[in-house]
Design a protein that fits this description.
Rossmann fold, binds magnesium ion, binds adenosine-5'-triphosphate, single chain
Length: 362
């Protein structure tokens, strides 16, 4: 496996703020890595360090095996698109895309073909003579992408590249960027605070909090196996249950909630009997049933609210310990006027494997 970008214990401080705190990451060739986290967690600063716009206080940055801490941006072989993608307004689309090629001294005769190739990749063939002001927001964004990839850089850096677009267009561009990336196979690091964007685009996601990378994994690993409450809350919705480990053997970890109800989880290394522990259950892993349906995990409660959203319905169940949110697919046709079931007793049921152990304290 060739590593295209390697960050080794990279730290960046701005006065008292540690914007990036000992971040180590390997990005293999061809991978799309998302840096995901809330505002201010250090995503942009990390990307700017890779780009060479910021110098780290500690640690090293390698691109294709070469330490680049002292190499200026224009010699790092990068393509970049930032949220304010700032096309040159007085230049045609063609000249915008050709800019990087000319800067690099690509022979004149090769420029039109390379520009056309890049334009075709972003599906803008035929628009080269227009000016940026004559394009839609999505088209301008594609020009910015074409401009970034036309030089065939080793690494593509994207900082919230779709932030300026409305939701529909953003979703469409996400799918297109993914397809483009698969076609070109270019190693990509992109920054987003949008979990769905990360899940759609990334091969792996690095979740950041307070300048640190707190978990790295495939979208499935991050969603299905979050290691902390922060990650489970940031990606998707979680029901968090707090309790005490009452027994743990090879078969199951049993947790007692404050009410005395018990839930079971797949055993993991770490938690011991008597530890306080947090577990999470995803809303779509819970089934609602009028009676305890024989599942290992069953919490009885009262149906407190129902939100019908067309494709899915969210139900809120007040149990003795917490309010659970449950998401169910609306598979069967529903009568137009279903009787309001609020207030009735229901049972929230889920499998042992769907109880995610987050953290424990002795
Ligand atoms: N040039 C700077 N001078 C001082 N502080 C800075 C500078 N750039 C960033 N910071 C601080 O470093 C921290 C990380 O900022 P950064 O821009 O990397 O966050 P981010 O994760 O990209 O956030 P957002 O999602 O809002 O773009 C923040 O606390 C920010 O205020
Ligand atoms: Mg940012």
């Amino acid at each position: 496996m060739t590593v295209d970008v390697r960050l080794a214990a990279v730290t960046k401080r701005f006065g008292a703020v540690t914007a990036v705190d000992a971040v180590s990451l390997d990005v293999p060739q061809g991978e799309v890595l998302a840096l995901l986290g809330p505002s201010g967690c250090g995503k942009t600063t990390t990307l700017r360090i890779v780009a060479g716009f910021e110098a780290p206080d500690d640690g090293t940055v390698e691109i294709r095996g070469r330490v680049v801490n002292d190499v200026p941006t224009y010699r790092r072989n990068l393509g970049m698109v930032f949220q304010q993608y700032a096309l040159f307004p007085h230049m045609s689309v063609f000249d915008n895309v050709a800019f990087g090629l000319r800067m690099r001294g690509v022979p004149r005769g090769d420029v039109p073909r390379l520009v056309e190739e890049a334009m075709a990749l972003v599906r803008l063939t035929g628009l080269s003579e227009r000016f940026p002001s004559q394009l839609s927001g999505g088209q301008q964004q594609r020009v910015a992408l074409a401009r970034a990839i036309v030089t065939k850089p080793a690494v593509l850096l994207l900082d919230e590249p779709l932030g300026a677009l409305d939701k529909k267009l953003r979703e469409q561009m996400q799918v297109e960027i993914r397809a483009l990336q698969r076609q070109v196979g270019i190693t990509t690091i992109f920054v987003t605070h949008d979990q769905e964007e990360a899940l759609t685009l990334a091969d792996r996601i690095a979740v950041m909090e307070h300048g640190r990378v707190i978990q790295v994994g495939t979208p499935t690993e991050i969603y299905e196996r979050p290691r902390s409450r922060f990650v489970s809350d940031f990606i998707g919705v979680s029901n968090i249950l707090e309790g005490k480990v009452v027994s743990g053997d090879a078969a199951a970890l049993v947790i007692e909630l404050p009410s005395g109800s018990r839930v079971s989880a797949t055993p993991v290394a770490g938690p011991a009997t008597g530890d306080r522990i947090e577990v999470a259950v995803r809303p779509e892993k819970i089934r609602l049933s009028d009676t305890a349906d024989g599942s290992v995990n069953v919490l009885a409660g009262t149906l407190a609210n129902v939100v019908y959203l067309g494709a899915v319905t969210y139900s809120y169940i007040q149990t003795a310990d917490t309010r659970l949110v449950v998401m169910e697919q609306n598979r069967a046709p529903r009568p137009a006027s279903a009787p309001s079931p609020i207030g009735r007793t229901v049972h929230a049921c889920w499998d042992v494997a769907s109880t995610l152990v987050l953290s424990s304290r002795p």
